[in-house]
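Work package 3, deliverable 3.1, input record:
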Amino acid sequence: MNSLVPLFVIVPLGSAFLMVIFGRLIKHLSKILVTMMLLFLLYLTFYFLYNVTEPQIYEVGGHAARNGVPIAIYLVIDGFSKLLLLIISLIGFLSALYALSYTRQYTAEPKFYILFSLLIAGMNGLVISGDIFNIFVFLEISSIAAYALVAFGIEREQLEASFKYQVLGGVASLIILLSIGFIYWQTGTLNMADISAQVAGTGVFFKFVAVLLITGFGLKAAIFPFHSWLPDAHSSAPSPISAMLSGVVIKAIGIYVILRLFFNMFAINYEISMTITVLGALSMIIGSLLAIGQWDIKRMLAYSSISQIGYVILGVGIGMLVLVRGGDIKIAALAITGGLFHLINHAVFKGLLFLGAGAVEYRTGTRDMRKLGGLNEVMPVTASSSLIASLSISGVPPFNGFFSKLIIIIAAVQAKYYFLALLAVIVSIITIGYFMKLQKYTFFNKNVNFPKIREVPFSMAFSQILLAVLCLGLSLLVIPDVQKIFLKPAVDALINSTAYARVILGY
Amino acid sequence: MQGMTIIVKKITQIMAPVIFLFGLYVIVHGHLSPGGGFAGGVILAAAFILQILSFGSILPSLRREEVWLELLESTAVMGFLVISGLGLLLASFRIFFLNFINRGTVGQLLSGGIIPLENIVVGAEVCAAITTIFIALTVYQDEVTQ
């Protein structure tokens, strides 16, 4: 047992409540504390990435398993958790850095950072939790923090978006809780490893539960038929929060749980794999088609998130299908690698795009592309970093988005899903189209309305530059030696789907 | 907010201490009988809410209460974290939520190690939270009607 594991939850939770207690006494305490906390979490994540290779299992309270039945709450850090922890702390740190200047427009600044810390605590806890009920608890912590953060500006539009998000999020939580109840009823345990040992046969009952779980977590991840809340919530939230929601939250509380449950808890079967792949392909196409017509910058980016999440699910879904059909395991590994690579890349470039949109809104006060134009002369840092992000999201070499999409398409062709490969290429072309529209109307046309604005403050510009460098730097992940540190453990955790239960139960 | 009639006020004066005491009983017996920190905290909050409802309140004093309740709530959560984190710091095992106090015999009031302590801080936290929610709604209503 590694005693550093619970720190991923204790540190953000503790700093959130320290901010409440001492925030009135010490000025700027919350700003200092949130950056220190996220730097520490980033350090901790890198420590686990480099020094700890084995999956870490932590029994809270020290209750050891009796007769092979786990009774404690389990915290598990394996390769897949590490990947998500890296994304959470990295994008979280850069968003917090950006927020230091951005939140000056709000009256209740400390509350922003308190909720931000709770959001981080919830996601960290969800990602390292080893039993399904604690996944629900941490899911609710992060969701409730997210509802409050979406409504943070308390304008009419933000309250409406937050209400919509709350209603659909509440429905999702209800469905998830129901399915957890069903699982507990049938197996008598909540530990995911223990459940997976008992649901080996795929009866009708567990297929029903699987459908409920896909619906619930699909709502949280905004996959195609459940995406209606996302464009409102992600576009009206404060920009650092939009970057967190689109870049991290829908992945940590949606995609991560779906993949964890259907690879490591349920036995992979054909119907579920096909459902996941089809939903991924549909959200990829429909998200991009809906994005074309938008004139609101952040709304376009929100629809684009649906589309890019579709790529991630498509990649991993193809991997699942290959595994189910007993195909070449190397092709499955390639497809899953592509999906997870795109997951990291999307966190970085979508985070950057939202921060750029926030910078534009911060100086001009509008998000309507028709009123903007020619901002590359007055805001050079924002314009150039946003251009880099647009190029990498539309898959232009040598930026990171090109490589991950290439890997997904190659894997689809090798697995003989030619139609899916064609769709991925077509959607990529549509993506270039709408990002050209965004760049042209925002940064390249003639500057009519805002000739005298200045570049954003240092902390906002700095985090944008760092993310732009990451956009280029993450291309290195295509090299196998670099993949070995960041991606390979995560892919292995998913491919060897029964290893998870075997390591935890110890046989 | 307006107060209620003398009958309600008098009954509240008699009942509120009893409710408060019962809440404390439920909290400290949390490890022995049904209930515990959460249920007891809600009962404690009910004693306060009953008094605010029957005697009425003025806006500035409610706001002041809100500040203190917020502080109490956060301190209680920190207390919970510290008690459960002590296991990480003190013992040689380095385990989160380690029950490091002697557990005593089952059925006695002083038993269960850290569980009664955790129940007490949870009770304080829930009481403060529920009362804060109530006061926030009351303040909101007063502001809207004015």
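The two ends of chain B are 11 Å apart (CA to CA).
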